Amino acid sequence: MQFIRSTILFFTILLPGKAEPLDFGRDVRPILSDRCFACHGQDSNKREGELRLDQRDAALKGGDSGPAIVPGDPDTSEIIKRILSDDRTELMPPPKAKKPLTEEQKEILIRWVKEGAIYKNHWSFEPIKNDTQPQFATKNWPRTPVDRFVLSQLEAKKIQPAPEADRAAFLRRVTLDLTGLPPTPEETQAFLADSSADAHTKVVDRLLKSNDYAERMTAVWLDNARYADSNGYQFDNRRTMWPWRDWVIEAFRRNMPYDRFVTEQLAGDLLENPTQLQLIATGFHRNHGYSIEGGINDEEYRVMYANDKTATAGTLFLGLTMDCCRCHDHKYDPISIQEYYSFYAFFNTSAEVGAPGEKGRKEMASAPFVKVGDDPATATRAMIMAEKPRETFVLQKGLFDQPGEKVEPCTPRMLPAFEGYPQNRLGLAKWLTAPENPLFARVTVNRIWQQFFGMGLVKTADNFGLQGEMPSHPELLDWLAEDFRTSGWDMHHLIRNIVLSATYRQDSRFRRELDDAENRLLARGPSFRLPAETIRDQALAASGLLTRKVGGPSVMPYQPLGVWEDLSAPPSHAETYQASTGADLYRKSLYTYWRRAAIPPAMAVFDAPNREICSVERSHTNTPLQALVTLNDPTFIEAARNIASRVMKQESVDPENQTALAVRLVLVRSAEVKELDLLKEVFQERLAHYQGDPSAAEKLLVIGHSAVDASLDRIRLAAMTDVCHVILNLSETVTRK
Fold first, then answer.
1. Does residue 555 sit in helix, strand or coil?
2. Do 107 and 37 belong together in one domain?
3. Closest by alpha carbon to 318, among 227, 495, 414, 444?
4. What confidence tens digit (pLDDT) does each residue in 637-648 have?
5. Of 99, 120, 141, the domain-final residue
6. Which of 234, 396, 537, 662 is 20 to 30 Å from 656 at the Cα level?
């Protein structure tokens, strides 16, 4: 061990290094944050040996064992002695932590001390920089400013971008991304025939003006805002929140400036003479769960709801994990428990109560609320925000009944000062959207980038703090953030810059010669699993079943029996799933009733969150259960049958031509020869099966509620249904390439 320690010091100290100087934020802080800050960081209650390593002055001063760092002298720095020690009682990190440093990490820390142990502020807390002029040689590749930053990094690594995707692939990609639906055959034909220089721009502009775009953006925001149609907790009874969802749809349809979009949701009730719609917008805060269980403590649950609002705002608007500060100083980020409760104070003045007091099975709208609609038969109550003055105290250990020192509404000190703003939610909204705030714009454009590339420029979309990842393209992130702000927070402008870029238009095929499985270099087009809503909606769209009604109460499409009944609510509060009928069965998944304790199973299998908390990214898993959904869910069987009916009525009796049309309807491309051969075999096998057992065909044709065209040969329709069902189960139907 002594030999190894001496060798490391020899090669990192005695021999002159040729590598460029270390960058603290990129190279050193991630090591200290992951291995050291839990015991030697912000949290004074958990700090060991009176030593802080998250601040340079404190590290130079040291703790019980003296100075931890002697700049320029690793050999006498206590931190270096400890990480190289062969004494388990002195070794750092301690063996019991089970987070040993790698040899490479040890070398980095030694080099860092040798170079002077320079500290820098965390990149995300620094002002946005927009003065970088990226250098690149291939002048004819960039299409939007986005490409300059991507190309500069690729050329620095001597990597060529991927070729441009073919036009049909681009159209499917951008249409799915912007609307959650595939393009129609007519839209595809029109785009392929348009040879004008602005053909791609015209497509994007058309999509951005559609209701489908507004609904697609809303679907993402529902995850962010933890929207549900039920209250959660033990009884999980229904409530009415859809008027707020409709407000969001309309805001995206109008391309409401994003700063206004956020302000009205954060503080619409505090605007001068707020309209009813601005009051409904504040339902954003009321999306969290509510308990109506008997015997609960009103203050305890009121505090829980305020904590939820605080954590949601911290994650969604600042990209910070603030919830752990309810009980102690943040272990990694420079946020103290006092600062947490100062931020919490903005949301601690809600007029709502913790225990609403309604124990019946009827819909609950806990006050404050507004009445929506004039017709007594359809009018409902939408929960909103209203202010109720209330003092805020630091809650010791996060306990509602242990108040400590009094605090005033304020924002974390490591961010721009909260001076000159009203000490309420409207002041918070103004502070968030001010030019000086570096996080709000960065966090927002990163989530939008994630929507189109499957991963943000900052991979950890929910964490821009010290435990989060560095941005893959920091200059691009800052350029997008500043451009978004100076455009007047124009979401359409931001999206055009992304989806019209050469970066986005690249072919998405995996490049085996690059060691970049996650495509962090952006050397190819984005490819990832489609969200749950799109997988279902594209099947309905291709089949012609999709109902295009916008807004209104949530609906209940097909769902396996017994899912709701398995919940633990007592009989007095139990609810039964009553499937919708008619056109409501085929509405977009955006409008599916969302019950927190039992979210739609077909959605859950494809990684939709339960929305009990704010969620800014979804998992992308692949499991056998997903195939079972698309093979057995009545929605997909009906969709396959209706696609079969469409192609049989549009094409000749030749099943190969019908199959080719079905592939175009679903996949928005021509079928390959090998695919047609396989599907032809499926058709012949199923045709023979149904000819031998006509009752099996009848069983297939009666699944669901959509009518079957009586003029079609039922045996051939059943066989073609199975062919179309196979097409709906091809891997490409759940992948956005």
1. strand
2. yes
3. 444
4. 999 999 999 999
5. 120
6. 537
